[in-house]
Amino acid sequence: MSAPVFNESIPSGGNPLEIDVNAPYVGLEYHYTYLVFCGFIVWLIIPGIGLLYGGLARRKSALTLLFQSLMVAAVTTFQWMFWGYTLAYSRTAGPFIGDMANFGLKNVMAAPSPGSAVIPEIVFCLYQLLFCACTVQIVVGGAFERGRIVPSLVFGFFWATIVYCPIACWTWNPNGWLFKLPSLDFAGGGPAFVLGKRKHVGDPSHGRPHNTTLVFLGTVLIWFGWFGFNGGSALNASVRAMVAAFNTNTAASTGVLGWVMVDYIKHGRKFSVVGACEGAIAGLVGITPAAGYVEPWLAAVIGFITAVVCALLQNLNDWMHIDKGMDVFKLHGIGGMVGSFLTGLFATSKISALDGVTIASGAIDGVGIQVGRQFAEITAISAYSFLVSCALFYILKFIPGMHLRIAEEAERDGIDMDQFFEEQIGDWGVFDEFNKRSRVLAISAPGTPPVEDVVVPMDGAGKKD
Questions:
Q1: What is the pLDDT of residue 433?
Q2: CA 116, CA 241: separation in Å to the nearest integer?
Q3: pLDDT for the residue numbered 210
Q4: Are 362 and 344 in contact (CB under 8 A)?
Q5: Each residue's pLDDT tens digit, 242-274
Q6: Domains in the chain, start-ordered, CATH in brackets?
Q7: CA 54-60-64 angle, 5° bins
Q8: Residue 460, class by beta-carbon neighbours within 10 Å (0-12 exposed, 13-18 middle, 19+ buried)?
Q9: With helix as H, strand as E and coil as C, how does the chain read?
């Protein structure tokens, strides 16, 4: 069955009280059902990132990162419905950013989407919203253990508006300048630089993950969600989408192998669970721009190379004199650059054509200029996102009430205690550790229990029996 055609006179797809808006998609239901399913599993990346970041952080900051993952999703959803979607995907967009044609999701309903005619626009809107939410969460994570929650959420709203949406328009909107170049991007550093390093004088736990199990669980959810991230980016249920999903798993697996190999050699035949998890994420990031363009064996090469490159840059934070415990730039920045470059080398038309529509080739097909196009994409996106992100942080830094960094004393004791009601911590052992200032420091008399065994009453809601 042929795909429905967008009608400018009825941009919403029609009044459901007068016509059957489902009729144009009869026989095509499997396409949008598949994409809705992909969107649902992409959502799992959101708690996955929260668990990953919570496990990598020190225990006294883990709660903040879990809470922040849900809050970022909520704020980004509002931003997307308010004006994010129209800035990125309006049909009347310019080469750099969209207009207000779909402000407040006006007319975003049953008409064929701008990304694919076989899916309704509301399905496309939901799917792309989840991309935005995951990206904002990754970026905001760069301020972990020293950034206040409210300013971080405000930053996330405006970062999505002035960084993510324009770049999405450049890359995926048919009117975007990178889309027309074309650069090949199948699925798509400021915070730490501006906030400065964490205070960790005398803290032996600095830089060490407090819960490797959470890191592992978060990685598993991210890996699973990435099947939807890449597998749905064909925007149809074609063979190309299935190849993209296969390539996703392949690259993540070889990413694990690459990172573990580097750790095994570097650390004297020792293994690292966290290293294996970082390798999987590096592989996922590396294959994202290439998933629907390369053969499975080349996907394996991309995952392996990306992970090895990222693993060899373990001292990147020291070289750049920044403190980014979540390795946002190393994994997602460097990993994305490597993946984009390798896409220019390995993209082949016989894979991209599996959806029956797309023809795209790289150097392996004799189109060497595609490597230069990928460099143009890397340079433009990297420069724009870094400079605008830093500018946004500096602006917020000087707005009353929007100072980003918590006080040094609060950072020492733990951002969780500074940002949450004490009742919500729920673990009195953790509460005692975080609230050391409330303890009574006494010298035990002969015959009395040691100080650490003495139960000290707390005031208010923190009272112990």
A1: 54
A2: 13
A3: 80
A4: yes
A5: 999 999 999 999 999 999 999 999 888 889 999
A6: 23-397 (1.10.3430.10), 428-462 (no CATH)
A7: 50
A8: exposed
A9: CCCCCCCCCCCCCCCCCCCCCCHHHCCCHHHHHHHHHHHHHHHCHHHHHHHHHHHHCCHHHHHHHHHHHHHHHHHHHHHHHHHHHHHHHCCCCCCCCCCCCCHHHCCCCCCECCCCCCCEHHHHHHHHHHHHHHHHHHHHHHHCCCECHHHHHHHHHHHHHHHHHHHHHHHHCCCCHHHHCCCCCCCCCHHHHHHCCCCCCCCCCCCCCCCHHHHHHHHHHHHHHHHHHHHCCCCCCCHHHHHHHHHHHHHHHHHHHHHHHHHHHHCCCCCCHHHHHHHHHHHHHHHCCCCCCCCHHHHHHHHHHHHHHHHHCCCHHHHHCCCCCCCHHHHHHHHHHHHHHHHHHHCCHHHHHHHCCCCCCCHHHCCCHHHHHHHHHHHHHHHHHHHHHHHHHHHHHCCCCCCCECCHHHHHHCHHHHHCCHHHCCCHHHHHHHCHHHCCCCCCCCCCCCHHHCCCCCCHHHCCC
In tens, the pLDDT along 29-70 reads: 999 999 999 999 999 999 999 999 888 887 777 788 888 889
How far is residue 132's CA from residue 311's CA, in Å, rounded to a whole number? 27
Closest CA to 413 of 175, 163, 129, 58: 58
Asked if residues 133 and 181 have their Cβ atoms less than 8 Å apart, the reply is no
Single pTM value for the model: 0.86
What does the block give as tokens for 5?
């055609």
Residue 257, Ramachandran bin (φ over 0: left; ψ between -120 and 50: alpha; else beta): alpha
pLDDT for residue 458 = 41
pLDDT tens-digit map of 3-17: 899 999 999 999 999
Rounded Cα distance between 326 and 230, Å, is 23
**Which region holds residue 459: left if phi is over 0, alpha if psi is between -120 and 50, else beta?**
beta
What is the band of 428 on the pLDDT scale with cuts at 50, 70, 90?
Answer: very low
pLDDT score recorded for residue 287 = 96
* Per-residue model confidence (pLDDT) at position 198: 52
Contact yes or no for 192/143 (Cβ under 8 A): yes
